[in-house]
From TrEMBL:
It comes from the Bacteria. Residues 7-136, 157-256, 263-371 form the Alpha-D-phosphohexomutase alpha/beta/alpha domain. Residues 376-448 form the Alpha-D-phosphohexomutase C-terminal domain. InterPro entries: A-D-PHexomutase_a/b/a-I, A-D-PHexomutase_a/b/a-I/II/III, A-D-PHexomutase_a/b/a-II, A-D-PHexomutase_a/b/a-III, A-D-PHexomutase_C, A-D-PHexomutase_C_sf, Alpha-D-phosphohexomutase_SF. This is Phosphomannomutase/phosphoglucomutase. Keywords: Isomerase, Magnesium, Metal-binding, Phosphoprotein. Its cofactor is Mg(2+).
Length: 454
């Protein structure tokens, strides 16, 4: 039987339930297909702490080696640590993780040399096609000389590289609570924070891919509750929450209040611009706050607005030579990190900014958090296109209102905006709204939701 990978191969990665939707035999074929499509003679692999990850990763390595590629296994790592290996060793890479998904899921995030993304339009569709064909009958011909599989520890090199990009030598002592959610932050944070003037209060640092305490998805406010409580109890200066593969980082201030990822984007953008002499392009997606382009412009930079999604951000960063990019989902991208996303580097910037002055984090980020936002609100709909059309007809032609379709539909006025985007994988519409004051935001949000939900 040929494998049907239509539900497993997504726009940017492979993701599905193990072993129901994919297993080690398919992982081996993915390894072979990855080598065939990229033409790689050597690759790097890494994996998270999920029970199925070591077996899937090793199967992928076997498939790659069978086609002649030498495989460097960096073992347990965060996704940005795999990107580091891809960049520093100049190898295509494959990371085995399902990020914030529940324990029964696993997946593969693949990249070319220098951490360049592999998505539907950059090789993933061809990889899927090969795996489906080979799973039916036509197995790939092994290379005359198989490749080797060797291990390499990159954790200390990764940590040293991050610390080289942010000056933390003169910060004041800080107390920081870190919730790793039993994910890979428990592996990387102790090494990255080594030697810094920080009192670290660890939460859920035990690597456990069954997520016994809460889902490793800080985007859901329910998963921040433990961190918020602990920050207040400890009288800490801030809290950090990482997702399962530790490539995203969420920040909580000294009061236990979440800091908007848009405010973090603006803060890091201002620091990166200062580091580059007050010049440079900063990428932000279209659901980040108005604060982001304002702060970028005020600090001498050039803001560039893109669609939501890491493949669009990375492509635009490469095209424009941008020094930094941020998404409202707490993905942060750095030119000095091969245009790849690393929440850990963003966290170091926050620590440096906070520790470089005497005030609180809430006071520091106030200058970067200027508007009232709704956060992302998902609505299940039966016909995405029809609901988008209904929104368009409700606002089109209204005086002082502009519409654009860079990604879904964005409706803008002088003192508010909202964006509605269809999910690629579920029957959902995602709403983000922002206004100059909370009352206007609530009115705009509720008006849009009434149309969406019909």
């Amino acid at each position: 039987m040929a494998a049907d990978l239509s539900q497993v191969v997504k726009a940017y990665d492979v993701r599905g339930v193990v072993p129901d939707q994919w297993d080690e035999s398919l992982a081996e074929l993915f390894g072979a297909a990855f080598v065939r499509v990229t033409g790689a003679s050597a690759i790097a692999t890494g994996h998270d702490m999920r029970p199925s990850s070591p077996g899937l990763s090793r199967a992928f390595a076997r498939g790659a080696a069978a086609l002649g590629a030498d495989v460097t296994e960096i073992g347990l790592c965060s996704t940005d640590q795999l990107y580091y290996a891809s960049g520093a060793l100049n190898l295509p890479g494959a990371m085995f993780t399902a990020s914030h998904n529940p324990a029964q899921y696993n997946g593969i995030k693949m990249c070319r040399m220098g951490a360049a993304p592999v998505g539907q339009d950059t090789g993933l569709a061809e990889i899927r096609e090969l795996v489906e064909r080979w799973s039916e009958s036509d197995a790939p011909e092994p290379a005359a000389t198989p490749g080797t599989i060797t291990g390499r520890d990159t954790l200390s090199d990764y940590a040293a590289h991050l610390r080289s990009l942010v000056d933390l030598t003169s910060i004041r002592p800080l107390k920081v609570v870190v919730d790793a959610g039993n994910g890979m932050g428990g592996h990387t944070v102790p090494e990255v924070f080594t030697g810094l003037p920080l009192t670290l209060v660890p939460m859920y640092f035990e690597l456990d891919g069954t997520f016994p305490n809460h889902e490793a998805n800080p985007l859901d406010p329910a998963n921040l509750v433990d961190l918020q409580k602990r920050v207040r109890e400890e009288g800490a200066d801030l809290g950090l929450a990482f997702d399962g593969d530790a490539d995203r980082c969420f920040v909580v201030d000294e009061r236990g209040e979440p800091v908007s990822p848009s405010a973090i984007t603006a803060l890091v953008a201002s620091r990166e611009l200062a580091r580059h002499g007050g010049k440079g392009t900063i990428i932000h997606n279209l659901i980040t706050s108005w604060s982001v382009p304002e702060v970028v412009t005020e600090n001498g930079g050039t803001p560039v607005r893109t669609r939501v999604g890491h493949s669009f951000i990375k492509a635009e960063m490469a095209r424009s030579g941008a020094i930094f990019g941020g998404e409202h989902s707490a993905h942060y991208y750095f030119r000095d990190f091969w245009n790849a996303d690393t929440g850990m580097l963003a966290a170091l910037h926050v620590l440096a900014a906070l520790g470089g002055q005497p005030g609180t984090l809430s006071a520091l980020v106030a200058q970067y958090d200027r508007y009232a936002g709704s956060g992302e609100i998902n609505s299940t709909v039966t016909d995405q296109a029809a609901r988008l059309a209904a929104i368009r007809s409700a606002y089109e032609g209204r005086e002082g209102i502009t519409l654009d379709e860079l990604d879904g539909l964005t409706v803008s006025a002088t003192d508010w905006w909202f964006n509605v985007r269809p999910s690629n994988t579920e029957p959902l519409l995602r709403l983000n709204a922002e206004a100059r004051d909370p009352e206007t935001m609530a009115r705009v949000r509720d008006e849009a939701l009434a149309i969406i939900r019909g």
